[in-house]
Protein: Peptidase C39-like domain-containing protein
Amino acid sequence: MRVFLFTLVLLSGCSRDFKPPTDSVLLPLADRQWDPEAPQEGWCGETSIQLAAGWYGAFVSQAKVNALGQPKTPDLWEHDVPTALRALNMRFERGPKSRAALLTFMVEQLRLGRPVVLGTKIIPTDHPEWHVDHLVLAVGFSPEGLIIDTNVEDGQLTVSWAGLQSAEGDKTYSLVNQSGEVFGFAVTGFYEPSPLPVRVSIAEQRADQATVDVVVPELREGLSYELLRNGEVLEQFTAKKPERKLRTVVPVNEVARFTARYATTK
Structure:
C-alpha cells in the first residue's frame, strides 16, 4: 500500500454525526516499524496485527502474519486482515461501515482495552480509487482526536476527529474514500484467552530469532504464579511487585503464545 511520510497538521472541529469523547484512553502499545525484509509495498497491516497480537501475549513476526493472511499482493490489504486474525485464532469485531459510526465504535472498543486495525487514506492520495492507502493501529483517543501507531516514520500521533472525516487539507490520515465504506477491526483477544493478562513487545529481532519482553501485569504481591509459553510452564514465581517482566528468545518463524495463571498447589 502507498505510504506517505509527513508531519501531521491537526485540524479542528468535528462531524455533527459524531460527538468527540471528553475522556482519554491510551493503551501502552509503542509504535513499531516494518521489518527490514518487508517488500517495497510495505507491511503496514502485518505490523498492526503484530502489535495487536503482542497486546494479548503473543509474538508473531510480520512475515508470518503476511503468510497467514494469504494475500494476492505482496502485502496485506484490508480484506486480508480477517484471514490473518482467524489464522492466529484471534477474535475480532468488524466495525460499522460508515465513518461516524466507526469513530463511535473505536472509542467504545478502546475504552474496553481493545486496539483497532484501521484502514486509512493518506491525503493527498495517489490512488483515489482505493478504499485504503495504509493500515494503522488505533491505540487511544482524547478529546482532540484518535491516537494511532502509524508503523512509519510518523510514529505514534494524534489525528484530529475532523481530519479523519475530511478528504481535503494538506497531509493527513483520513477515513474518507470514494466508496464511502470504511474498515476497522477491533482485536478482542484469543479464542482461548490467557487466565491472566500478558503483554509481549519485541526488544530485538534478527533473521532467525527475536528477543522479546514478556510482562505479566496486575499481580498481587505474595501470590504464586506460572508463566507459560505455548502451554508449557516457563517459570513459576511469587510476586514481589505488581508486575513481572521476563526477557526471552523465540524463533522468528513460529508463533510464541505466552499465558499466565495462578500457580497450582498440591
